[in-house]
Amino acid sequence: MFRYAFANKFRATLECCLARCEIIWQLTGMSKADVIRITDAIGSDAIEKRFEVTHHAVRAARTAGKFPAAWYIGIREMCEAGGVSCPEAAFKWRAPTASAGAERD
Q: pTM for the complete prediction?
């Protein structure tokens, strides 16, 4: 009886973990697909020229699946000019710090 209960509990835990992993994969996978789609549409060369970066920086963004947040305005403008959607999820944003909303003296 103990083995059966343990097996069921283990199975339920494993299924929960796999479901969470699937959600995380989908979220990160979509941004990676977006970054690749954007770089293909507007061109790596155009991004390199706009931000004065090397092809290694663009390739690193494609590999990571996130553009640097500092590129947001420029990438968004390039996407608008090319008629390409530019989701915010394609950028690596910093999380706000605990003191970000606190009033300063």
A: 0.64
